[in-house]
Structures are given as structure tokens and as C-alpha cells.
Amino acid sequence: MTTPHELRAQSLRLGYDGRTVIDDLDLLVPDGKVTVIVGANASGKSTLLRGIARLMKPQAGAVTLDGRDIHSMPSSAVARLLGLLPQQPVAPDGITVADLVGRGRHPHQSWFRQWTTTDEAAVARALEETSTTELADRRVDELSGGQRQRVWIAMALAQETDILLLDEPTTFLDVAHQIEVLDLLAALNHERGTTVVMVLHDLNLAARYADHLVVMVSGGIATSGPPAAVITPEVVTAAFGLDCLVVPDPVSGSPLVVPKGRFHRGDRAAS
Amino acid sequence: MSAVETSVAAVRHSRARRSRRYVVVVSLLAAVVLVIAAVSLCVGAYSLSVPDVIRTLLGGGEGRESFVVLQLRAPRLVLGMLAAVCFAVAGALFQTLLRNPLASPDIIGVSGGASFAAVFAILVLGLGGLTVSLFAFAGALVVAAVIYLLAARGGLNGYRFVLIGIGMAFMVNASLNFMITRAEVRDAQEALVWLVGSLGSARWPEIALLALCVAILLPLVAATVPRLRMLQLGDETAVGLGVNAERVRLVLLILAVALVAVATAAVGPIAFVAFVSAPIARRIVATGGLALLPSALVGIVIVTLSDLVAQHLLGSVTVPVGVITGVIGAPYLLWLLAAPGRNGRGD
Lengths: 271, 347
Description:
A: alpha/beta, 4-stranded antiparallel beta sheet, 12 strands, B: mainly alpha, 76% helix
């Protein structure tokens, strides 16, 4: 269903107005896997995602897709391979769910090829996979936060890209809806084979859903690999300045970070 | 029915409902425009029936009828319609591109720039005729460029754009008032047209020029509409969908400024048409679309209806059309600023 792609950052330098955030970063996104980027605030994790998504032009180095610099490729050609759900997308007043999801078909349309049954089928499938079919006729501004995030993911799915980038897709959601969204993305990865790259705040959810975890520290990659190998008390302390225990997650078996604090040192567990 | 079929049916149903609503709104607005146009051509000191007017338009009128319809009323009506389309579409583009209902060319000083340049040409340089219109065009472009350059540093921000624009509008208006108060009374009278928009000067050659500009600019706008629809979802989403957000915004801002400039050069700044047309049209259509065609039709209704009022309903007094549109627009501005949840940020 999806074709293999090589998405790579090479000697990447990214920054704003002369201030460098990320310097000399190399990254190979594993094809067909879920990659999660974690790190403390201001570690550069969102900047890295923005750079991969071509929202920022590199100051040096390049992001390449199948060997070609994404900034030198035609924009709509990139958009047919690489989808993006930003942290705060804007829904126009009064737009319906079906209309919004339909706009995800833009990269596949042109003057000669307007709305077709292929577009219709892609939108229908996206609605179904995100369980938003019954919302099709509703206005986006009337939906709850969880529903709205599913609709935005549906729009990105309608784009039918082999790679999907998401910037903190669970922010502003309660814990049940966070799980719902992450399950949806995991299902998408399993069923469509879509390569998923996302930034997450919650280390434990990241460890549970990632095949490949990238830990950022002050603008560089501190370590990366399978969560079980990456998440250790030493890494968490280095990345977040947090003293913690790491135990197996009783549900998923993935590493579970249990923070220590001034009042809860975990001495009872240790003794 | 399978789950896929259910979803396809839901998509089809929703899209059909949306386009049906759009067609109904456009048809109704077009009908209203037709009625107003008919009334405009019939009513006046020399009243005509609808059949008389139709016969005259088809070339079968007598001398006096022909003069009244073809030289007095029709040019006024057509000029008002063309200018209304320019203002309404330009307003819709500005408000969409800058994501702010206050970001209308008449609020942020772009029309004011045209007026200032025209009055400068008349009062200071002693010019007249088409040269004045060229000055008006240049004035609008210069003001827009200054606002853009000041607001675009470190990424274009709609809110900052509006604030800088309002500052520019104050500067331009202050300079205008300065020139008018220093001018000879007779010159000031001539310059007054550039302070309040008026359809009184309608002549076919100028109308043909404006029509030509509209015929060039509107297809260019239409060509960028699909990309503008993606821009409505925010710059980042638009880039993700393969749209070069910054370039599309710049191109459309230039087209919008050109629309305002050619219309202002022809009729002066008809107040608030750019500001209110798109919000009214979008409220009626209510699908979250751009609604450019409905906006243009709403603009035509506002201008032609206001001109009817200005000419016939104020007793023996006739006033420029811009006075009436100002009376309509000002309360809307107050409502926009005072209504809960609307702080002018438009987000």
C-alpha cells in the first residue's frame, strides 16, 4: 500500500533570526515505523520536526527525501509523500468536517483534475478510519477537542501520504483522548504502513507507542533507538534533569519512568 | 450498505448540501441585484417603466429616454457595480490573508493612500483628469508596501499589520485634512470627491478603463483561489498541503491592492464596502468557504442601494454614495469591536 522512502536529515542546522537552535544534526527516519521525538522544553524537538516538514529552511545541511533535497522538490510533489499536522491548525468559521477533510486532497488536484471519485473515496476512507463519518455534516467549531483532533488527523489521512509528521498531536487533550489519538496513529501505521514521526511531551506514552525514540538535548540528538534500550535513568536525568526510576510498564512492557521528587524519593521501594 | 459506502454517501451528501446552499444564496443575491438595477434605471426626475428601459437599452429609445438611461443612469449603475466588486473582493482577500476582520483596505489606510495622492495631485501639483487617477493608484500601492515592509519583519503577522495600517490611516487622513484646510474653496470642492466616494462622475470611457482592469485582475484572483482556501487553514497546514504560503499571500495582497487602487481611482473611497461585504456574505453562506462571488454581490447590493438612497430618498438633497455606506458601515465596526469574543484579533 505504501512504498518505501528514505527521509533523512544531514548535517542539519536550523534556527530563527540568526539564533541557532539545532546544529549539525543527522537523522535517518526508519521507514514504516513510528518515530517519536522527545526532549525537554527548548531542546529543539519541535524545531527539528518543523525542519523536516519544510516549515523552516535549513541554515546549513539538508533534509532529503529519497535522496533529493525537499526544498528543491516541487512543493506539491513533497505534499503527496509527506503529510503534516501542525500543533495549531486553523479551521475557518463554519466549515464542515467533510469540507475540511476534503481539503486534504489539494496536492492531488489541479486545474485539469478537480474533485473526482478518487478524492471522494479517499475522504470517505479517512473519515471511517478516524470514526468521524457520523460527524461529516457537523461544523468543526461545534466539536469537542478530541473529535476535532480526529478530524484534523482525517484531513492528513485524506492526503494519502506515505509519511505523516505530527507536532504534539495530544496537547490540549485529556488522557483518554490522548490514548485514543495515539491508538489511531498506531493503527494507521500497522494497517496502511504509514511512517509516523511525531513530537510528544509525555515520556511514558512516547515509550509505549514508539518503535524508534529520538531523545533531544540542547539542539542535538543525545541518543536514539528502541525505547527499551534508550530509556534509562541516566538518559532521563541527562535530558530532563529529572531523578527517576525506570520500571517495566505493567501493561505494555515498555519502560515506564517514575519520577522522584523532593517529597517522594522512593526510599521505601529501594529498601 | 458497507461502512465504506456509508462514508462515501455521507461525504457526497455533505458536499451536495453545501453547494446547494451556495447556489441558492448566489441566485437570491443576483435577483436582488437585478431588482435594484431595474429600479435605478426607472426611477428619477424623469420616470420610465421597465419595458421603456428595456427598449432603450436595446437601442429603441427616443432621444430623451436614450439620454436619461444611456448617458445618466446606466453609467452610474455600471460604475457603482464595478467599483463594488473591486472593493468587496479586495476586502475579502485582505481579511482572509491577514486573518483579521479589521484588515480591510479602507480601515488600514490603503484607500486613504489613494485619496491622499489624488488630492495632492489636484491641490499641490494642479493636475486633473486621468493623471489624478494614476496618482491615486500609486498612493494605494505605496501605503500598502510601507505597511507590508513594516509588518513583515520577522514573519508577517496579521495583527501587527492591522495596527500599523490603522496608524498609517491616521497619518494619511491628517495630511489630507491639512491640504484641504489650506486650499482655495473651489479647489477644495474638487478634491472633496476624493474624501467621500461618489458615482456622480460616471462617464463611459472611464468605466471602460475600470472594466478592463477588473477583467484582468479577477481571473488572476480566481486562479489563486484553490491555494487561498488552503491558506485559510493556517500557514503551516498550507505548506504541508504543498502551498507556498508566503508567495501566495504576497501575490494576492498585490492583486487586492490593485483592485482597491483601480476602484478608488475611479470613484474615490466608498467607505466600508470592502470592510462589510465579505463578513455579511460569509454569514449568509455559512460554509466556511471564501465566498468571493457572494461577497461581490453583497458589495453591489450595498453600493447600488446606497446610491438609490443618496439620490432619491433624502428629499431635495442628494449626497455622495460614500456618505450613505459610511452610515451603514460604522455601526458594524462598533459591533465588531464591542461584541463578546471579538477583540479584533480575528482568531
